[in-house]
Hints:
The complex is a heterodimer. Chain A has helices at residues 2-29, 32-62, 73-95, 99-116, 133-160, 170-204, 213-235, 240-263. Chain A is mostly helical. The model of chain A has no long low-confidence stretch (mean pLDDT 89). By secondary structure, chain B is α+β, with helices and mostly antiparallel strands. Chain B is 35% helix and 39% strand. The longest helix of chain B is centred in the N-terminal third of the chain and has 29 residues, at 74-102. Chain B is elongated. Mean pLDDT of chain B is 86; it is low at 444-449. The chains are: A mainly alpha, B alpha+beta. At the A-B interface, helix 6 and helix 7 of A face helix 2, strand 7, strand 10, strand 16 and helix 8 of B.
Amino acid sequence: MEALSNQILVVVTFAFLAASVLYLCHWVLKTELFGWAASIVTWVALAALTASIVLRWLASYQLGIGHAPFSNLFESLVFFAWTLAVIYLIIELVTKLRTIGVFAVPLAFLSLLYALSLDPAIKPLLPALKSNWLIAHVITCFLGYAGFGVSAALSLMYLVTGQHKQAGTPRAQLLDDLIYQTVVLGFILLTAGIVTGSIWANSAWGTYWSWDPKEVWSLITWLVYAALLHSRYMRGWQGVRVAVFSLVGFACVLFTYFGVNLLLSGLHSYATGKG
Amino acid sequence: MSKGSQSSSFGQAIWNFFSSVKLSFSLLLILALTSIAGTLIPQKEAASVYLRAFGEAGWRLVQALGLNDMYHAAWFRLILAALAVNLVICSLNRLPTTFKLMRRDPEEDLASMRKPRQRFTLPGAPSENLAAAEKALTRVGRVQQGQTPQGLVLFAQKGAWSRLGVYVVHLSVLVILAGALVGNFLGFAGSVNIEQGQTVDHIILDSRQPKKLDFALRLNKFTISYYPSGMPSEYRSEVTFLKNGQPVKSASLIVNDPAEFQGIDFYQASYGESLNLKVSYQKGDKTLEAVLSNQHWRQLPDGAYAAVADYRKSIKMGDKYSGPFARIVYQGQQGESQSFNAFKPGAGMPSAGPISFAILGASSVPYSGLQVKYDPGVWFIWVGCTLMVIGFFMAFYFAHRKVWVRLSPTEQGRTRVELAGGTNKNRPGLTRLLARLGAELGGREQQAE
């Protein structure tokens, strides 16, 4: 079951690559057929990815060490790809804008590609990770990261397609609004992620906040997005400024996620690839 | 200029400074930028760590700026305090306007209809279409109506309370900061190592000061269970809390599942083996026996203190000596500190002098390291976090929307319907609402004018 789950993952990774290429063809050649194909491939890949995660979950019970598949870097990367695909596809359903896929779906592909380079073995849980808050913490954090990721993809699209030169057109306004909406979604979920993390820390380590590098970087990310929201509400910032801000915010997210584990040391050490 | 007005204009200047959103924006980014330093520079390490990493001059700079414990440094706390003041003053500054907008007289709203966004006509006179218009508007809120020179106006609004969302969020930040302060001033944190079978009534605070509890804690048993792969799966301490020597409560402590007694929480944090070294202790012409530990000081029969700094089960020094070796730290009654080498009795090269130690035997006992915490501020934190999430939903996902419907007669004896709306955020949402209302009102007979 574990092997099947991993085999599906390899296929899904390349399906996301194929979808990215199809979205790109759709964008460059303006052919509807490519757009449809890209959407279908992404939906099928998401379904298969869901199956792979569920199989891994079941497999862990077969091994007698049953736990939700959110316990190390490999599992988090797989889940991150899943949340990215879910949030992107919802936006595609609502807006019918397939161009966003050119920028969003490659993120899911890269996340899985990184996962494939790591050891996929299902390992038992460390005592510190045995908590129901693990599931709430990981789900909220990664949905938040994915919200910010899609927002960054939208921002890149905004800048690359030169929307700022045509600010005021419905297209530019829609993109600007979507960048904002996805930041709000990410912000609420990141907040929930930090809160569930501190509840958990309070029961595991006896302190809800210990200024651990991972905690501090999540706070830095939170502060950057809080500044973005204030600039928009109170100073009316939009367009290029918010797009650039959102990209800076996502750089903080990436550092919180990868940089802290790879470059700094702290309490979140089990989230490294070494496991 | 009088002194009073001078001071009030100074007060005004301070007020204006702290009520600026530019300041909030800058403080948020300053906090973000400065926080990075503490994740790059190791925190709360020994001086030698910084000396090795940054050199003499670097270490002096780190020390001067408090970068070795920057999140507790005065300047960092000051930025947090400035943000709190900024939050309070910004909110106080805006709250009256918000209340005015929320409790505006409906008469005033009726008279100030916005520019119509939709226009169409319906058959029949305005009075015949009134009921339908009223019914459609009830989905927005309670309907007010009034006659204006341009026609009959219906007005409804919803979500006025959502204007408070931002204040709920700001309040939540203050509640969380207050919780941290309460924990800081009224709470304490420390740790204690207890050997299996031992009872303790002291903990060591994080500041390294001992603190006496008004109850005692006994470790009955410490166990580690393993997965088949050999990885530890659970650390468990069976403890009993005693009051005046009487057992009151027993608990099992595992990671993620602490135990509480009299408001103080105990967490499974570490474990190890504690050494009990039985020694004979010769001072002058007296020989005494004592059991020393490598975990803490033990009082010797003569009132001095001693502890084991180093212990080897067996060492070999050519053919001169083979057997156990220990290094014992000794603190006399006057506080003078010395260390002694100890070997098996009558062998090796014990430190010369009026005092000497010899090793009689050694045994080890498992001990469990517990984290101890008393934090009366923690409930502020959970209340603050809950408020924050509620505030976000109020602020981000609800808007204060106002809708006007004006019905006026046309020359053909039909009714001209005009829809207008206003909102404090999410314009596309308002446009959708107006479109829905228009469709509901006009039905199939709707025709654009």
